[in-house]
Every structure is written in structure tokens, then in C-alpha cells.
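re: ur question from the group chat, yeah i did fold both. here u go
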Amino acid sequence: MTTILIVDDHPAMRLVLRHHLSQLLGVDEVIEADNGQCAIETVRARMPDLVLLDLDIPRSSGLDVAPRLRAIHPQVRILVVTALDPAVFVSRSWQAGAQGFVSKTQDIKEILRAVEAVLAGYTVFPVLGRGGAPRQSMSADDEMLRRLSDKELVVLQMLARGMSYKAISESLFISNKTVSSYKARIMNKLQVSSLVELVDFARRCRLTP
């Protein structure tokens, strides 16, 4: 019996994926979560075979959630299905423990092929470099982003969404003071001097849809 968990905060996207997984692939059980915390709780309770994970989700980030899912359920396979920029997030998704990455803009048949491949034990990334690591073509902004750790990138995403320090600290299980420290380090690394500039940079780099 195959169980797939869809983690996406858009009901229409979950509905489309659920329909095609059930009708075209014959998946036995498709379950859903609309935020990061719900995804963690669902994986702990249901132990799915595969998680289709959006990176831009409420109450966390897919980059933060992915390794936590693998810690709970080491055998789970993770396929990132997102609208965020592949040039920024393919490599990071791989590093976070995902076995594949597809864009929401791709045809549904391509997404389903990726699902089948990841379930069969393969990895599916747009471009692979040496050793199986996804390779990115780097722009100036990409080079700036490479300076950020995964956790700093997650905090940057959350700040760009307008989340408060309190909401970020609760999602990432860190203190408000730590969030403030992350923000200061991010601003220093990206050479910006205000939150407005920080948000503009994040949007320019398509860190949020």
C-alpha cells in the first residue's frame, strides 16, 4: 500500500495532485497538510512513503521541514513541488534531504513522472553536477544568496512574507533574540541596510511566489 502526503497551502493545488495521484497513478492513500507543523505531525502519525513538499508554506519553510521529516521517518522520500526559483532552491532542496525537485509550472504529466521515479528509488533534479549534486548557474544575486546558511535563507523567506519575530521564533523553535541575530547577519551578508531593502531583495530573487 502506497501513501503519499501532499504539503501545500493552496487547496486547488492539493485537489489537482490528489485527483491525478489517485486516478492516474492509482495511489492507495493520499493525505494532506497545509502547513509545516501539520506536515511534521502527519508524518509522525501516518509514516507516508512519499511527501510532495512545497517550500513556501505557512508556519515554517520546506527547507526547514524536510530534514525534520527525515529525522522522524528516515525512509520517507521527499519530492519538492514548488513555484519558487529552481536556480536558488534546487541545490538547497537536495542538501535538505529531498530526492527530487519539480516546478509547479511543469505539465502535470511531468510531475507524475517525477513522483513515479522518486517512489522507485531514483532522484529527480533539473540539473545534476558532479557526485549527483544539483548544479546552479550563478547570477550576482545567486552569489549573494550562497553566503546565507539554510537557516538564514528560511528566516529571510519568513521576513519577506511579513511574519513577526514571534511567529518566526515559534515556527523555528528559537528565541526572538535569535531571530533578531539572524536578521542582522542576513542584512550584513546581503549588504542591505533596512528591512524594506531586505524584502525587495527576497522578492527580486523570487524567494516567495
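okk and heres the other one u asked abt
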Amino acid sequence: MTTSAEQKLAALGITLPTPAAPIANYVGFVRSGRLLFVSGQLCLVDGKAVAIGKLGAEVSLEAGREAARICAINLLAQVKAALGDLDKVTRVVRLGGFVASTPSFLDGPKVLNGASDLMVEVFGEKGRHARTTIGVAVLPGDAAVEVEGTFEVA
């Protein structure tokens, strides 16, 4: 018997939140053909950033990794809002991650593993994806991490 993506989330103790409303002039997602583009999601729980500041200063690697995981949960909430069913995802194509960090912080890719690992936990092999990680000076609300995603859908 195949386990659905939502059953896997439940087994991990994860409940998808209500998708965050855009904070500026954009939409949370756009579908074009079989691709779903999800706007960057911050590390928000109940509207508040769980990691504030910069990696390499106020935020530890472990806290950054957890923040990236929360971003991924928020991405999946947008995907569910777009599709109604996470099992319509046929492939996680790409994640793009932004890590607020000091110039000397070199472990941005390790931070983004928090998001990547969740995609593989939920979708298995079809959760493996291409990825970019970029260190930045600051993110909205002084959040430490933001992740965007591209998904192939049925």
C-alpha cells in the first residue's frame, strides 16, 4: 500500500498551516502547464519568524536548518492550496533558498538541507530536486531563511 504525502506529514507530526498571505504585490503561487511555482516562504509559525537575525551571528546552524524545514512546511501549505492534494505533485523540481548570514558564514547549503530533507521525507525519490542557496544581507521581517519552490504536477 502506498502512503500518501499527507499521511507521511502526519506520521512526522506535521500539520500544514493556513498559507501565508503575500506581503506585497504578488501571489503565493502560479501554475503554468504542469509546473507550479511557489513564491518564497519565510520561516513563520503563526505569523511570527522562528529564527530572526543572521546565521553566523544570532542564529545557529541547527536553528537555521529548522527554520528551513519550517519554510518547506509553508511551501507545502501553498502547494496544497494550489492543488487541493499533495499527491498531485509528480516531482519537486527545484528549491531556491535565501539565508540571511554574515559574510563569513559558509554553511548556507547545510541550512537548506532542512527544507530538502523534508521534501525527500514526504515525496521519496520524486522529492529529490535541484537547488540554489544564496547568502543575503537581510530578509523580510529580519527572518533568517526564505525558500521558494518549483513543482511538477499532474
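fwiw on the second one: Helices lie at 5-11, 61-83, 108-123. The first strand starts at residue 29 and ends at 32. idk if thats what u expected
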